[in-house]
Specification:
Strand content: 15-25%
Number of strands: 12
Protein name: Homoserine O-succinyltransferase
Function: Transfers a succinyl group from succinyl-CoA to L-homoserine, forming succinyl-L-homoserine.
Largest sheet: 12 strands, mixed
Number of helices: 9
Pathway: Amino-acid biosynthesis; L-methionine biosynthesis via de novo pathway; O-succinyl-L-homoserine from L-homoserine: step 1/1
Distance between the termini: 22 Å
Order of helices and strands: EHEHEHEHEEHEHEEHEEEHH
Subcellular location: Cytoplasm
GO molecular function: homoserine O-acetyltransferase activity; homoserine O-succinyltransferase activity
Oligomer: single chain
Radius of gyration: 19 Å
Length: 313
């Protein structure tokens, strides 16, 4: 797809090297069509790595997508150059008066931190409440899914005793749901979290459509009836070596991590891992963009309102 991002963004050269169509602002303006406006709230420490991963998945669609990067606050970070943040990232104050077709909220390394102890919890609440009136569909990923369930359904934090890490086997529950169109009956997806999402618990305490589950990892995909909120408890955006790097990091910190499940050939950490989730990840984001965003959003974002959404698939 033509994805429109700043030419100087590090992801631009990476994506172009992968034959992904990255469009210049001049060419986008000449096409005479309205691109989808998607806001990416990046909560991960290594922002350049994470933004590249998500931009790669947003590229698998014929729709033109204009992506803006959002940070949660202006605190300095040791993992991303300040110049990069100042150049490419928006503060919430800069976008709060605008409407967007889509919002993606990434995961965050906060699995063992209580919500009230998260330094930017008030900012998360503010942005998620703002999204109700300014965003057509929001995609919550990993930790953000847990935060979204807290804010939308007042579900308490549920923490596993051991970290869930690996590539897990999932099955879909409604092959006709728009988010799952084109999915095989079963598929693999990576997880790296302490959060607990059981299907029984979500069925009991929410009205969400449970779309895909794993016997080991619990709920992977869920969505509200109107598709305005989609929850992904894993990490379809991960690169092939992301779990490997996390494993090495945790081991170096003396955490005695388990070997990621179904990741290394023969569970041998000296073997190169193989990505078995790329196709499903691209399809998931393509479906979200098409059926939850493009098919639902008003043509003129200035006319954003609850009444502008259709119930059609």
């Amino acid at each position: 797809m033509p994805i429109k991002i700043p030419d100087r963004l590090p992801a631009t050269d990476i994506l172009r090297s992968e034959n992904i169509f990255v469009m210049t602002e001049a060419r986008a303006a000449s096409q005479g069509i309205r691109p989808l406006k998607v806001l990416l709230l990046n909560l991960m420490p290594k922002k350049i790595e994470t933004e590249t991963q998500f931009l790669r998945l947003l590229s698998n669609s014929p729709l033109q997508v204009d992506v803006e990067l959002l940070r949660i606050d202006n605190r300095p970070t040791k993992n991303t150059p300040q110049e990069h943040l100042d150049t490419f990232y928006r503060q919430f104050e800069m976008v709060k008066d605008r409407n967007f077709d889509g919002l993606i909220v990434t995961g965050a390394p906060l699995g063992l931190v209580q919500f009230e102890d998260v330094l930017y919890w008030e900012e998360i609440q503010l942005i998620m409440n703002w999204a109700k009136d300014h965003v057509t569909s929001t995609l919550f990923v990993c930790w953000a899914a847990q935060a979204g369930l807290k804010l939308l359904y007042d579900l308490p934090k549920r923490t596993r005793k051991e970290k869930l890490s690996g590539v897990y086997h999932h099955r879909i529950h409604d092959c006709h749901h728009p988010v799952l169109r084109g999915f095989d009956d079963t598929f693999f997806a990576p997880h790296s979290r302490y959060a607990d999402f059981s299907a029984d618990y979500l069925n009991k305490h929410t009205d969400l459509d449970i779309l895909a589950t794993s016997d080991q990892a619990g709920v992977y995909l869920a969505a509200t009836k109107d598709k305005r909120n989609v929850f992904v408890t894993g990490h379809p955006e991960y690169d092939v070596d992301t779990l490997h790097n996390e494993f090495l990091r945790d081991r170096e910190q003396g955490m005695e991590p388990i070997i990621p499940v179904n990741y290394y050939p023969n569970d041998d950490v000296n073997c190169d891992p193989v990505a078995s989730w790329r196709s499903h990840g691209h399809l998931l984001f393509s479906n979200w963009l098409n059926y939850c965003v493009y098919q639902q959003t008003p043509y003129d974002l200035a006319h954003f309102s609850e009444a502008s959404f259709t119930k059609d698939n």
